[in-house]
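BUG: 3D viewer hangs when loading the predicted structure for this chain

Environment: internal workstation, default settings.
Expected: structure renders.
Actual: progress bar stalls at 90%.

Input used:
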Amino acid sequence: MHYIKEIFLGKPVDYIHGQFTRYGKGMFEGPALVVKKGSTIKVEGSIHYANVLGELIAAAADQNLNVSGSIYAKRDIKIPLEIKNKKAKGDLHTAEVRETIHSDALKMVYNDYKDAYILLELSADSGGWKLKCKKKPPKPGGGLDEKFCSATLEAKALPAVMEEILFDLKDASFKQAEVKHEIIIDEIVGTPELKKDPARFRLEAKRKGTIRRTLTIDGKTTASIHAFLV
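Structure tokens produced before the viewer hung:
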């Protein structure tokens, strides 16, 4: 499940906190994505959607997938994929992978490393399944890259796309759906003891604020706002 959906459902889980540690107080551009629906489903979005697009393909393809790319995590990476190169620098672990594996094994990777950036290219020998991601996460402060990843999914994946990404859209008869988020951090919440250590405070304190979610469906825009503490 994408972390934006979890927040809007009021069920944020522990890994979501790591998505917000980069933010101080203020207003920020959040996840952005465009879905175009025809004989296949074309998706293009920011890095925040790289994992969920891979999850959708792994869940629906049910076949061997050609896999290559890198995983970036803040813990040791142990996965059912052949690792070509593995590094650790500080608390950042990276692993380069290249293998052909069944989609069921790939589902395990996405499920076990929801807190990581899984930047993979996926392709199938049959069917229209494809995912492309840029090789490295964007540099902090570099602005939002709304074309960081792109995917092609078969039409049968539409119910899953609706459920996981367009969860607040009831009508699936659209041609193009655009999703944007504006994240507003009002307060960084931590104990007095935690505030004595700025480095720990930045990483461990919770962020309190709101997310403004804007949907543009075939040119018609609606917005919703949800408060969070993560």
